[in-house]
Amino acid sequence: MSVHFRKLALIGIGLIGSSIALAARRQGLVEVISIATRKQDTLDEARELGLGDIYTLDAAEAVRGADLVVICTPVGAYEGVMQAIAPALEPGAILSDVGSVKGHVVKTLAPLIPDGVSFIPGHPLAGTEHSGPSAGFAELFAGRWCVLTPGPEVDPIKTEKLAGFWRAMGSQVESMDAAHHDMVLAITSHIPHLVAYNIVGTVADLEAATQSEVIKFSASGFRDFTRIAASDPVMWRDVFLTNRDAVLEMLGRFSEDLSILQRAVRTGDGPALEAMFTRTRAIRRSIISAGQETAAPDFGRQHEAPPAPETPFVREHGGGDDA
Ligand SMILES: NC(=O)C1=CN([C@@H]2O[C@H](COP(=O)(O)OP(=O)(O)OC[C@H]3O[C@@H](n4cnc5c(N)ncnc54)[C@H](O)[C@@H]3O)[C@@H](O)[C@H]2O)C=CC1
Ligand SMILES: O=C(O)C(=O)Cc1ccc(O)cc1
Fold it and tell me: Which of 37, 196, 211, 281 fits a 20 to 30 Å CA distance from 111?
């Protein structure tokens, strides 16, 4: 255990913010944790859970004297948060975040970063469908990738310092370009969520229209979709509003492939269906046998770090919803 930062400020204390607080405390990575939220109820809940040392509704107050500030709100709230904290950020501090989208974050925040502050966007590829301060747990990041997207102006020593913090919470860290991150995450995370929201919505409409027992008799495949489709509506609204181009690009490819499958079903093309399903089964099996079930998708790039240990991407973990 060694102290990585003196004062950690967390702006927003839902699933991800509370998990950082618990992991950093458990590993002794920071001396002081200050927490800012927008609503009193959320702050009270964080205090009752003992997540930090300082609790405030004033984000500027939270970041004063902090050498690491991590924004943990939905991406749509970033600009307002940044306007509030910019004048209070300490020279020499690292400012980071955990948002699921990176290009938009860089575009929005970079012009507002004060001189002397290192802006290093981040994204832990770890989460659940739960939200709010009680949803967090210290092991969330263990064996998961955390992607950092520092710009060329960032001192590599600062990036390494932040990477060390994430490694100490159990993550493996990889740096990449924000645009590349957004394209990879569009197809591996954002579109799967869109598909889940859509299929559950379609079934719900059917159910309403027919009073049938579709949901009652749904098999486990559909239940997996309902878990994903229970994810936080505000967070995911912001993901689709802010990663629009990459999502639309990948959705185009997805739709083309779906049309090919649709045609194979319509024409009764058994060999085409079987060939497709055989290919996807082989992909799943090769991921498992390489022990890379949790490894970051690389789209042909080489990982610097070894594959993450084989742990489920998402734990079944209870948790409340955000206030
Ligand atoms: N949920 C997940 O599985 C993952 C989420 N992320 C990213 O992490 C970020 C946070 O997500 P969660 O922790 O899941 O959300 P959450 O809904 O559990 O928590 C968000 C927190 O931000 C607070 N908040 C909202 N607006 C605020 C404002 N203007 N000022 C201060 N606090 C404000 C809320 O009160 C709440 O405490 C998002 O940007 C999301 O894209 C990243 C990886 C996984
Ligand atoms: O709950 C799930 O299955 C997830 O996919 C969690 C998740 C959600 C958003 C992210 O940016 C990263 C991970």
Answer: 37
